[in-house]
Write a structure and sequence with these properties.
2 copies of one chain form a homodimer. Helix content of chain A is 70%, strand content 0%. Chain A is mainly alpha-helical.
Chain lengths: 195, 195
């Protein structure tokens, strides 16, 4: 298993080597079948060094995605205020991040690179259920395995239509109107009757 | 403007030449600034030949997208039954097409090629507002410029999460449950109070 390239632990680019190994393994095996041990082995370092640089497997995965911000931190504010009105708060938070001209180009680059090919399945398998899901789980009344994907379907659809493929009517819509229109949808998926 | 390659009108691959020229121009200029005349000129044929092979500019655009079926025909059945229950019918129709193993690979190929890069903007600018919009316009009570993009945001989100990036919870959900959960959302975007 060990494919050490003879680099000593702690060398200046060890962090980058671990990240490269993680990206390859996450893409090849998916999130759940990638272990910290395998990443360490491929990078030729001790597993403790992976933990030292990146923390948990979730954290390593977030680092591999190279997002300009950590969505778990962004979502913390939405979650801490509880389920009431969380639908609209979620939409407002997403818009405030994506409409920020400092952040949008980097997010768009990630979205485009990830949605267009098989790496997208990694987001489907890892990012939404494993990283975003547990945060949103605090907001749902029951059946998180159904409610979280429903929330994701509307939020991903908002991102793709407003930012990635830029449907004119969605681009032109004031954030206030987007929040008023999509908020009740997300709220119903989180806490309402699913029919 | 004329870049005729000396091919005589009606030669065996004229149809393919027109289609190639259309794909290039739609991608470079977008849908609204591409004219039948410019496509004909780039393909080195008379505009009447473009009309002869492809009909209207909408039809030419659909041909350039190379979808395995014409969504306008698929949607005709949803529209003819009127706005009542159209939300759930729309979701059911989308699922019946995308869940069809004969059709799904081709749709997935188009979705992946189009969502990942700038060609996606062509779908945003041309496909949804110009091709799908007029069909759905028969279902909305007012403000089609707001309601159609909202409908698109949820339907595109369903396609991306269930098929393109394959969120496990969304993949596992029975079509019945998807229709019951998303139907009321689409119905509200079409005919309900937008808040």
């Amino acid at each position: 298993m060990t494919t050490s390239r003879g680099r000593r632990p702690g060398a200046p680019d060890t962090r980058a080597e671990i990240l490269d190994a993680a990206r390859v393994l996450f893409a090849e095996r998916g999130f759940s079948r990638t272990t910290i041990r395998a990443v360490a082995s491929d990078a030729g370092v001790d597993p403790s060094l992976v933990h030292h640089y990146f923390g948990s497997k979730d954290d390593l995965f977030m680092a591999a995605l190279a997002l300009p911000l950590d969505p778990r931190e962004v979502l913390a504010g939405v979650v801490s205020a509880g389920p009431d009105g969380a639908g609209e708060r979620l939409v407002r938070t997403l818009l405030s991040v994506w409409d920020d001209p400092q952040v949008q180009p980097a997010l768009l680059a990630v979205a485009r690179s990830v949605i267009g090919d098989d790496a997208g399945r990694l987001v489907g398998e890892g990012f939404i259920p494993v990283v975003i899901g547990p945060v949103l789980a605090a907001l749902v009344v029951d059946r998180p395995e159904v409610r979280i994907p429903l929330v994701a379907s509307q939020l991903v659809g908002l991102i793709v239509t407003r930012y990635v493929i830029a449907v004119p009517g969605m681009v032109a819509m004031p954030a206030e109107d987007v929040a008023a229109s999509l908020g009740p949808t997300i709220q119903r998926y989180l806490t309402g009757d699913l029919g």
